[in-house]
Amino acid sequence: MWGAGIAGLGIAVWLAPVHPGLMLVASVALLAVAGAADMASSSFRNAILLSAADDAVRGRLQGVFIVVVVGGPRIADVLHGYLGSAIGTAWTIGLGGVAVIVGTLIATAAMPAFARYRVRLG
Fold first, then answer.
1. Domain count, the chain
2. Nearest 5 degrees, angle CA 73-CA 75-CA 77?
3. Is position 109 within any domain?
4. Under the phi-then-psi rule, with left for phi > 0, alpha for psi from -120 to 50, and beta for the rest, what region is 81?
5. Which residues are CB-neighbours of 80 under 8 A, at least 6 positions away?
6. For residue 120, is pLDDT > 90?
7. Is residue 62 situated within a structural domain?
8. Is residue 80 part of a domain?
9. Which chain regions cross the lipid bilayer (predicted)?
């Protein structure tokens, strides 16, 4: 959902010169969808990490998790800055969303056990 919301935002930014008011409303709605998806994803990531990790390594895994969550977007910031200047803002946003969707599909195909992950209660 996050990737689709961001890809849609790219389309809205691209169409903004044609219908600025409508695209502003669409952009805000798509950002709300992407934000809600990000919050749900964050909850799932934390729940999986806390339930799957042994007590002995949970702190270390949480440290790695924080490095990825804080550092990963900074790497993307550099890429977005470069691509934004090379191909334009709308294309950069849209392609970023599409890249997330494609990356998710590739990761799901490469690790089908992750897609089948279920929490064992009790």
1. 1
2. 70
3. yes
4. alpha
5. 92, 96
6. no
7. yes
8. yes
9. 20-40, 89-115
Model pLDDT, residue 122? 62
Highest mean predicted confidence (pLDDT) among 65-69, 70-74, 91-95: 91-95
- The amino acid that residue 105 corresponds to is L
Query: Using one digit for the tens of pLDDT, what is the confidence trace for 36-55?
Result: 999 998 898 888 888 888 88
Identity of residue 36: A
Instruction: State the CB neighbour count (10 A cutoff) for residue 88.
Output: 14
SS3 118: coil
Q: How many CB atoms lie within 10 A of CB 3?
A: 19
Task: Report the b/e string of 36-71 with b at 16+ CB within 10 A.
Answer: ebeeeeeeeeeeeeeeeeeeeeeeeeeeeeeeeeee
- The mean pLDDT of 7-33, rounded to a whole number, is 91
In which domain, by residue range, is 19 found? 2-115
With beta carbons less than 8 A apart as the criterion, state whether 83 and 92 touch: yes
Q: Which of 25, 26, 21 is nearest to 11 (CA)?
A: 26
* Residue 57 CA to its chain's centroid (Å): 26
Considering the chain, what is the average pLDDT of its residues? 90
